[in-house]
Each structure stands twice: as C-alpha cells, then as structure tokens.
Design brief:
4 strands, four-stranded antiparallel sheet, 188 residues, single chain, 4 helices, 13% strand, alpha+beta
C-alpha cells in the first residue's frame, strides 16, 4: 500500500516522538483508516529510513561480563569475547542469586590457589535446586566466591567474600572463559 506524503510525514512524526510499531499501527487505523499488519508497519518504517527509539536498556547484575570496572586488575592472557559469553536472560522462573551474602569463615575457598589469574573450580556434586552446575572462583585480586549455572544456562554468584564486589571486565571475561572450559571438560 502506498501512503501519501502527508501520511508518511505523520508516521515520521510518530516515530520521532518515540512511538513503537504497535502504536503506529493503531494510529494508522484510527487516523487514516489504513489497516497494515505489524510486519507491514515494520517494512514501512524501514522504507522511510526511520529508527525506532529503544527504551533504556535493562542492566543485568548476574552477567559478570557486562560489569563496570571496579578496580584495575591484571588481565588474563586468555580473554573471552563478549560474543562468546553466555547471554543472561531475565526470567521470573529462576531464583535470583544472592550477590551480597558473605562466604562463611573456614570455607573451602581458602584452598584455591592465590595468584594473578582467575581460578574456577566445579563441584563434583551440585545440590542446589534448579542448578546444573556450581563451584568456586578466585579472582585475580584474591576475592573469592561461589557460582552457580541455573537450568537455563545462566551463570550467577551465590556468595562473594567481599560484599558489593564487582570483578573487573578482564576478570569477568576470564571467569566466563574458564567456566566454559571447565564445564566443557565435564560434558556440559
């Protein structure tokens, strides 16, 4: 269907005002009695070379590969690219990890090797409900924690030795890469 220049101008104004495709579709019906499918409205917007305004992106606190730098840390020699990191998905089905809890004293985390690299250990038995795998991590700055991968493949932390800790981007990437390698060795 071909729109008149006035109709095209109206669509351009709606998109510039921040309307989404569904709203544009409704306005076309109400104001011009033009019925288009959602897909046709999408093609119309593309044909007019318009860009939809996206709402502010949601910040996902469970994805360590997207964290802001907290402290400078030694970069790992093997870095994972953000494209290879598992995507975190917000879903009401799974329990949210508790990022603020502390690791109890005398825990087995002290047995992890200290040093400049990220160390990831996988538990031999995972007893957490809804978890596929769990284990421990020691970041390059010495902060330790417990991690879990839920039934949807999303990694998260259940306990961190330093409340409010955020690993550096390099540590986050190294953690994701080492976690992936450890899980692949175990057949996940």
């Amino acid at each position: 269907m071909t729109l008149t220049p006035d109709q095209k101008q109206a669509v351009t104004g709606w998109i510039a005002a921040g309307d989404n495709l569904s709203t544009v579709q409704k306005k076309l019906i109400e104001q011009f009695q033009i019925t288009l499918t959602y897909r046709d409205v999408r093609f119309l917007v593309d044909d007019l070379n318009l860009e939809l305004k996206d709402p502010a992106p949601k910040v996902d606190t469970t994805d360590v590969s997207k964290t802001a730098p907290a402290k400078p840390a030694a970069a790992s020699a093997n870095r994972a690219s953000p494209e290879n990191a598992p995507a975190a998905d917000d879903s009401a089905d799974s329990p949210a990890p508790d990022l603020e809890s502390e690791v109890p004293a005398g825990d087995d985390l002290e047995d992890l090797p200290a040093g400049g690299a990220v160390s990831v250990e996988v538990d031999k038995v995972t007893l957490l409900p809804g978890a596929l795998a769990s284990g421990t991590v020691r970041f390059s700055d010495g902060v330790t924690g417990k991690w879990v991968v839920d039934q949807y493949g999303r990694p998260g932390f259940t306990e961190i030795s330093q409340p409010g800790y955020r690993p550096s981007p390099a540590d986050g990437q190294a953690f994701m890469q080492e976690l992936s390698a450890q899980l692949q060795r175990r057949g996940f």
